[in-house]
């Protein structure tokens, strides 16, 4: 089963993802952008480059996703493992659709989803850590172009579109709660998902 953690920068995904290692010692924990490949390194260069072309950036993130799928996600799923990914395809739909909002693409989110539909493996469940853009920007330190409150407001609106389209896949968790309460809510959601399996 493939479970993904999604949300704005600073929503607390990585904090939760790290804490889940103890509760699910046999699961495969992974992330996007990947941290162990040159594709991930290329993505990080684009994140840090304020002048990076947004369409080129989309394809770098998508290349990293293709490598992540073939090298990590599909083999783990084939072995019957629980895979928990800190960010995955929804991050592209939410973030790159916002970055490409004023581009020549008529419907950026649909375009990005179309590219993924040809090769990706959709998540079985997605835990969405919901936080307002101001809190997100403050917590993340606003250190890169994606971590600005105005941009994150667009990203959040895109996440809401994704949730509206597939309410059964998403579990929304209030990420303004204390870290302990957020983790309790995520663990409860995961237990329910695994029990349904
Ligand atoms: N529930 C919470 N309440 C207050 N602060 C939190 C909470 N969860 C995480 N934080 C703090 O917010 C900061 C960002 O947390 P974290 O790195 O887990 O977020 P993230 O969603 O993974 O961000 P990014 O997407 O930018 O990597 C950290 O300093 C962390 O300690
Ligand atoms: C996977 C992915 C990520 N992003 C953005 C979101 C963050 O601002 C950075 C890095 O992610 P992290 O969780 O803070 O390490 O990249 C994106 O725009 N599109 C994506 O597909």
From TrEMBL:
Its EC number is 2.7.4.9. Residues 5-184 form the Thymidylate kinase-like domain. One of its GO terms (cellular component) is cytoplasm. It is an enzyme of class 2 (transferase). GO terms for biological process: dTDP biosynthetic process; dTTP biosynthetic process; dUDP biosynthetic process. The keyword ATP-binding applies. InterPro entries: P-loop_NTPase, Thymidylate_kin-like_dom, Thymidylate_kinase. ATP binds at residues 7-14. It catalyses: dTMP + ATP = dTDP + ADP. Pfam families: Thymidylate_kin. One of its GO terms (molecular function) is ATP binding. Keywords: ATP-binding, Kinase, Nucleotide biosynthesis, Nucleotide-binding, Transferase. Belongs to the thymidylate kinase family. HAMAP family: Thymidylate_kinase (MF_00165). This is Probable thymidylate kinase. It comes from Haloferax denitrificans ATCC 35960. The gene is tmk.
């Amino acid at each position: 089963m493939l479970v993904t953690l999604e949300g704005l920068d600073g929503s607390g995904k990585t904090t939760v993802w790290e804490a889940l290692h103890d509760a699910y010692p046999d699961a495969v924990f992974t992330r996007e952008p990947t941290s162990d490949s040159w594709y991930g390194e290329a993505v990080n260069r684009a994140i840090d480059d304020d002048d990076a072309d947004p369409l080129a950036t989309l394809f770098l993130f998508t290349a990293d996703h293709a490598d992540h799928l073939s090298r990590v996600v599909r083999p783990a799923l084939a072995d019957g493992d629980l895979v928990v990914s800190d960010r995955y395809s929804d991050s592209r739909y939410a973030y790159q659709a916002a970055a490409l909002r004023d581009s020549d693409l008529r419907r950026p989110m649909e375009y990005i989803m179309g590219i993924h539909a040809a090769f990706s493996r959709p998540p079985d469940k997605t835990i969405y850590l919901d936080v307002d853009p101001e809190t997100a920007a403050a917590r993340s330190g606003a250190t890169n172009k994606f971590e600005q409150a105005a941009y994150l407001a667009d990203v959040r609106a895109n996440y809401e579109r994704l949730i509206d389209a597939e309410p059964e896949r998403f579990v929304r968790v209030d990420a303004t709660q204390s870290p302990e309460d957020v983790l309790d809510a995520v663990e409860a959601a995961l237990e329910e998902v695994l029990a349904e399996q």
